[in-house]
Amino acid sequence: MYKIIKNSMSEYSIIKCNYDDHAHSILNIYNDVILTSTAIFDYKARPLESMAKWFQTKQLNNFPVIEVENEDGQLMAVGTFGTFRDWPAYKYTVEHSVAVHKDFRGIGLGKKIVLELIQEAKDREMHAIIGGIEVTNTASIKLHLNLGFELVGTLPQVGYKFGNWLDLALYQLNLKTPLKLRRLG
Question: Whole domain around residue 145: which residue ranges?
């Protein structure tokens, strides 16, 4: 267990995830998001087998997978980050993603996950965190702006889903320059 948070309504835990205990629950959230929203630019629900490679990639690259779980052990939200672009000069930049279970949206869990991911990025001496957000996802955009992310560009009509062209807005948060780079400078 990572952290236990208590508020006036309930108690929940922020946990670092692993394949055996969490893959099925994470996949259920992702598949719901895929099938019902434009937050993930994918068309079809993913099979459970896809999660083995997904977790393996996260572990191999030391990327966190964090979830919020309620006192009954139900997954409420999940977040992670990964490679922004697969070239060496991007090694201090990550792209994050957050998904909240449909029954727990609008109660601040996305913010808690993003704050945890920011801390994880700092701990790994990352310099920039990128979030790609479909432009009509106003709740996610507001969350990121409130946490200090800035709009750095919009890619018009780069996705197509539910019969519509989708624009992808890129939001970025810069962290302190990694210590190892400051020592070299």
Answer: 3-184
